[in-house]
């Protein structure tokens, strides 16, 4: 079985959203500032490697799935430059 090809690193891709967005309300508000400080410390010592995930034809346009070495996979709207962890709803 052949291994899936990995996309090359692309430092120009957008950063993943704050990890606090994964928490339910009101905890996401409480940890939002802590998350920003954590990112500063973590990324300063270990920069994120960002790359495109394998093509997913079921994603609606203009969304792309990205992968980061420091977080989960995340989604990027190439028109609005919005990033999020939740998979965007299909347009069908």
Topology record:
Blueprint: H1 27-45, E1 50-52, E2 63-68, E3 74-77, E4 83-84
Antiparallel strand pairs: 1-2, 2-3, 3-4
Based on helices, strands and strand pairing, what is the structural class?
A: alpha+beta
Note the quaternary state here.
single chain
Total of helices = 1
Number of strands: 4
The SSE order reads HEEEE
Distance between the termini: 33 Å
Major beta sheet, strand line-up:
1-2-3-4
Helicity range: 10-25%
Radius of gyration: 15 Å
Number of domain units:
1
Largest sheet descriptor: 4 strands, antiparallel
Strand portion: 15-25%
Residue-averaged pLDDT = 75
Unreliable spans: none
User: What gross morphology would you assign?
Assistant: globular
Pfam family, one: WW
Protein name: WW domain-containing protein
InterPro entries: WW_dom, WW_dom_sf
Structural features, described:
This is WW domain-containing protein. Residues 57-90 form the WW domain. This protein has one helix spanning 27-45, and strands at 50-52, 63-68, 74-77, 83-84. With 92 residues, the chain is of the alpha+beta class. It has one domain (19-84). A 4-stranded antiparallel beta sheet has the order 1-2-3-4, with no helix packed on it. It is globular. The mean pLDDT is 75.
